[in-house]
């Protein structure tokens, strides 16, 4: 009988050392951006009910938190402010002593090498919960841009290393780039939420940030989850307007979009592993239905394999600890 020729792919899977040698995708703590929810007041570190392991942290508790983050090898955080008072124009977002601005100063005082990404939006600061000014029930695009520029410049003056506008107003990158340049921050990069879908996976975040819309929804400015080519149009506009990073949000249901954006644009791609994706895993783990460590590391690997260079994830601290144990 003639010998049957076939490929022996299992040769490269024969041992843990062999599998490690040929592994194509690697996770590192420096790949992660850890979100922080900063609140006003003192002596506060209160767990978010819908996001086990995620906390509202007051400024006096922030030094200890960032010390732990740095010790785990995580190089960057993204800041979300949760103010006590809100108004119709989100003035707390661009106040010189706003909660994100003050948190940035604290971090830079104690951990100057930790990169601070400032989320640049109005929804946490408006009493209506929308990401811009509202008139007759409609979110106004162009008037909102002026306030977003003021917010970005204020965050830059406080010491932010990266401005991350998440509002999805048309032209937001161009206006913020111009505003930063005119204020002397020509070297400050913009990490644009270029591809942000109107997703059902944001629920726990809105609980954490107290930012749910008080009427309607955000479908007039966030993207339809059914659309693919729209993502490329949005990303192309932001690149032309001066974006330095491109964010795709959410991550897991949009791995195809991450790959599309990676294939089409020569910029670092950031995937946002969002709150709903986090909380579902935490709930299943609490019920003993899954191996949380294995699931999380597989998920994060899939996001990197899809093309993400960086991952914003609430699992950052846990994943960094697990990777350290594995090594």
TrEMBL record:
GO terms for molecular function: porphobilinogen synthase activity; zinc ion binding. Its cofactor is Zn(2+). It is an enzyme of class 4 (lyase). It comes from Lederbergia lenta (Bacillus lentus). 5-aminolevulinate 2 binds at residues 275, 314. The active site is at 196 (schiff-base intermediate with substrate), 249 (schiff-base intermediate with substrate). This is Delta-aminolevulinic acid dehydratase. Homooctamer. 5-aminolevulinate 1 binds at residues 206, 218. The keyword Membrane does not apply. InterPro entries: ALAD, ALAD_AS, Aldolase_TIM.
């Amino acid at each position: 009988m003639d010998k049957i020729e076939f490929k022996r792919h299992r040769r490269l899977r024969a041992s843990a050392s062999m599998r490690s040698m040929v592994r194509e995708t690697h996770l590192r703590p420096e790949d992660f951006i850890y979100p922080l929810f900063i609140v006003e007041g003192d002596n506060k570190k209160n767990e978010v009910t819908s996001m086990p392991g995620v906390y509202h942290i007051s400024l006096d508790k922030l030094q200890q938190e960032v010390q732990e983050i740095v010790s785990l090898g995580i190089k960057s955080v993204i800041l979300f402010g949760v103010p006590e008072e809100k108004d119709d124009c989100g003035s707390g977002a661009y106040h010189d002593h706003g909660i994100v601005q003050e948190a940035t100063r604290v971090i830079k005082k104690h951990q100057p090498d930790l990169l601070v990404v400032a989320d640049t939006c109005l929804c946490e600061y408006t009493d209506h919960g929308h990401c811009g000014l509202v008139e007759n029930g409609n979110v106004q695009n162009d008037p909102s841009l002026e306030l977003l520029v003021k917010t970005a410049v204020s965050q830059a003056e406080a010491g932010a290393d990266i401005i991350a506008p998440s509002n999805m107003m048309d032209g937001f990158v161009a206006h913020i780039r111009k505003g930063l340049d005119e204020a002397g921050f020509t070297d400050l990069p913009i990490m644009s939420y270029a591809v942000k879908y109107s997703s059902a996976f944001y629920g726990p975040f809105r609980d954490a940030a107290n930012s749910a819309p008080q009427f309607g929804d955000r479908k007039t400015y966030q993207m339809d989850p059914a659309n693919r080519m729209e993502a490329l149009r949005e990303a192309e506009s932001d690149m032309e307007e001066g974006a330095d990073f491109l964010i795709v949000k959410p991550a897991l249901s949009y791995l195809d979009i991450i790959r599309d954006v990676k294939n089409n644009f020569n910029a670092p791609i950031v995937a946002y592993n969002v709150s709903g994706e986090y909380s579902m895993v935490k709930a299943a783990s609490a019920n003993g239905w899954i191996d949380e460590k294995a699931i999380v590391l597989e998920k994060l690997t899939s996001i990197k394999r899809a093309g993400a260079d960086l991952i914003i994830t609430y699992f950052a601290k846990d994943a960094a600890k697990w990777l350290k144990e594995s090594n």
